[in-house]
Amino acid sequence: MRDIMEMKTIFCFFFMKFTILTIGKTKESFVQDGINEYLQKLRPFAEVEFIILPEETIKKGMPDEEIKRKESEKMLLAVPQNSTLVVLDERGKSIASPVFAKEIEIFRDTKGGHFSFCIGGALGHSEVMRKSADLVLSLSPLTFPHDLVRVFLLEQLYRVCMILGRRSYHK
Q1: Annotated domain spans of the chain
Q2: What is the largest CA-CA distance in the chain?
Q3: What is the per-residue DSSP string for 102-151?
Q4: Are 115 and 86 in contact (CB under 8 A)?
Q5: How far is residue 42's CA from residue 155's CA, in Å, rounded to a whole number?
Q6: What does each C-alpha distance from 46 to 66, 71, 77 come to in angstroms?
Q7: What one-character DSSP code corresponds to residue 81?
Q8: What are 97-151's pLDDT values in tens digits?
Q9: What's residue 12's pLDDT?
Q10: For the chain, is the Cβ count within 10 Å smaller at the N or the C terminus?
Q11: Phi, psi of 56 (to 5 degrees)
């Protein structure tokens, strides 16, 4: 019976896909190393795709809101259809990892297993982007470079897989 439960748990992850949309390339090699580490760990549980969009070219005197609007528009156009949209934003919902896992599980079971996670540029997201989301999530009340958020998000997605798979990693 236990083998059947483990197979069912692993099987359901094959229907999960995480698309991570980001603004700008990863600049630091140590950040890319962290990304690669968690991509490797996630491989048995979910397909992960990165969509890296270019930063907005800033013209002299361009207001921050316009930059956020343009970057958010690019991002929204790139979000795959029929995916659950999760926007990472400092004003988002701050939840514990087990609660995040439960939210992912509920969305997976009700909307399907494709999730799009949007990490904004240095200025964050526009209000339109936040309002378009199924979930607006804050990883921490602290402010982090958006490059590092990629690693933090991947680690949390791995943790979600371990929690949903009833593995001990998350403790």
Answers
A1: 16-53+67-164
A2: 65
A3: HHHHHHHHHH-SEEEEEE-BTTB--HHHHHH-SEEEES-SS---HHHHHH
A4: yes
A5: 9
A6: 35, 27, 23
A7: T
A8: 999 999 999 999 999 999 999 999 989 999 999 999 999 999 998 888 889 999 9
A9: 46
A10: N
A11: -70, 135
Nearest to 74 by CA among 115, 22, 6: 22
Question: Which CATH architecture does the domain made up of 16-53+67-164 adopt?
Answer: 3-Layer(aba) Sandwich (3.40)
Q: Is residue 18 a contact partner of residue 117, using CB atoms and an 8 Å limit?
A: yes
- Give the number of residues written for the chain: 171
Query: Tokens at residue 63, please?
Result: 């207001």
Residue written as tokens 């079971």?
109
Question: What is the per-residue pLDDT across 25-77, written as a single tens digit (0 to 9) for each?
Answer: 998 999 999 999 999 999 999 999 999 999 888 888 889 999 999 999 999 99
